[in-house]
Design brief:
six-stranded mixed beta sheet; FAD/NAD(P)-binding domain; 12 helices; oxidoreductase; 24% strand; FAD/NAD-bd_sf; eight-stranded mixed beta sheet; oxidoreductase activity; binds flavin-adenine dinucleotide
């Protein structure tokens, strides 16, 4: 059973979820979507809008997976450097995907406006902040590649970055004004409400136990109900459980945990992220930080939650922001990221009419929203294909070993952090 969502700041501060019920009895639809995160909900919203009858079946609550647990950085593009993307999937496919995701924040903030989604949305940009020489070199490379493709990014000097972040520990930052921050669970719940308004049917606490061929399509079964449809989309990413468990073998699950402080004082907020950008750093074992609407510092790092992470986070925050002499944490929660072998999301057609979308590798707010919309366009004949790769993923070799390697590596890094000065 995956970790509950109840310890998260996002669950404590999100507007109420729409009231749904369990799937019971028999239903027929054009499309069944398994999983109520950004991908499934955006797909349902757009499919319903384009006239398809669609049912979303979620095992737990809406946003239970990565969508309700993430940092909330609504970024353009993918993690991968743009030139690397071209190398990985070829120039033409690379450019198509790059272009589709360059405008991903426009789609996210467009839906937020259109459906009046209350999700603490700010669009003040994000900062990819560099540590050390290699971090700076990485940002210079990224800046050059993104600027060459016309992205309006700015490479900030050390003093600019330090003033924007409120910390002297960074030697530069890549500012992307297209991006922003959201309250991710609130966005997921808002997408669910919007999908209901468009006529989609949504069911929560209904784990799909079995999917089997049925006449020309598929029969999706839960304990108390079933839906028949010609098309099924598995949008379960890192949280693939029960009847879709085998999907989990296609990627390595990596934990990322976050802590949220008590609201900071006005004096502290005057120097820490005064423009409210979201930040992540260039360290191999990455960390991220941002503010929420109540002025809490939300700080995250790779690895599962526990004393090692909490001690490291308290220490690191003190180093970054001396004005926070002693930080008190109110919330701590963790989430699972689905790392695919090529670090790209894939839409696989597992069998005729049975699709799976997975492998966002930690960048799923914009991509999940866009892929959901593209799926709806594809299924209604408005496009010939998706922007993300549609190749089949193999099961990751030595998956469990890799998972343990990343987890132990993150914990060891956090334990040894004091010994290695960050600057
Ligand atoms: C800690 C963390 C931080 C992140 N930070 C960012 C960030 O700042 N910016 C960004 O862009 N991305 C970020 N990501 C990535 C992003 O959150 C994910 O890529 C995205 O949420 C994936 O959405 P999804 O809809 O595909 O899957 P999910 O949101 O994981 O949804 C899958 C759903 O499927 C359901 N499910 C599973 N099995 C079944 C079943 N048998 N029957 C029915 N339902 C089932 C699960 O309960 C779950 O709700 C982060 C991820 C994590 C974990």
């Amino acid at each position: 059973m995956p970790e509950p969502l109840c310890d998260s700041l996002w669950r404590a501060s999100a507007p109420a979820a729409p009231s749904l019920s369990k799937l019971e009895g028999r239903l027929v639809a054009d499309v069944v979507i398994v999983g109520g995160g950004f991908t499934g909900l955006s797909a349902a919203l757009h499919m319903a809008k384009f006239g398809l009858s669609v049912a979303v079946v979620e095992a737990q609550e809406i946003g239970f997976g990565g969508s309700g647990r993430n940092v909330g950085l609504a970024n353009a593009g993918l993690w991968m450097e743009p030139d690397q993307l071209d190398k990985t999937i070829g120039l033409e496919a690379g450019r198509t995907l790059y272009d589709a995701l360059a405008v991903a924040p426009d789609y996210v903030y467009g839906l937020i406006d259109e459906y009046a989604i209350e999700c603490e949305a700010t669009r003040h940009g994000t900062l990819h902040a560099s540590v050390g020489k290699s971090g700076l070199a990485q940002l210079e490379r990224r800046y050059e590649q993104m600027a060459r493709r016309g992205a309006p990014v700015q490479l900030l000097s050390a003093s600019e970055a330090q003033a924007r972040i409120g910390s002297e520990k960074f030697n530069s930052a890549l500012f992307d004004p297209r991006a922003g921050t959201i309250q991710p669970l609130a966005y997921a719940r808002g997408l669910a409400k919007a999908a209901l308004e468009e006529g989609a049917k949504l069911f929560d606490y209904s784990p799909v136990e079995n999917i089997s061929p049925y006449e020309e399509g598929w029969l999706v079964k839960t304990q108390q109900g079933e839906v028949r449809a010609p098309k099924v989309v598995l949008a379960t990413n890192a949280y693939s459980e029960q009847g879709v468990k085998e999907q989990a073998r296609k990627f390595v699950p990596i934990f990322y945990s976050q802590l949220a402080s008590k609201p900071l004082s006005d004096a502290q907020l005057a120097s820490i992220l005064p423009n409210k950008e979201g930040v992540w750093d260039t360290c191999t074992v990455m960390s991220s930080f941002r503010l929420d609407q109540q002025g809490r510092l939300v700080f995250g790092g790779m690895g599962g939650k526990g004393d090692v992470l909490a001690n490291w986070a308290s220490q690191r925050v003190k180093e970054l922001f001396p004005v926070l002499n002693k930080v008190e944490w109110d919330y701590c929660w963790t989430g699972k990221i689905a790392y695919s072998e090529d670090h790209l999301p894939h839409c696989q057609q597992l069998q005729n009419g049975l699709f799976s979308v997975a492998g966002y590798s930690g960048r799923g707010i914009g991509p999940g929203t866009v892929v959901g919309m593209e799926l709806a366009q594809w299924f209604t004949g408005q496009r010939d294909n998706l922007s993300i790769p549609t190749t089949l993923l193999r099961d990751v070799p030595f998956r469990e070993l890799k998972r343990v390697f990343y987890e132990v590596g993150a914990q060891a890094y956090h334990l040894g952090q004091k010994a290695h000065a960050l600057d």
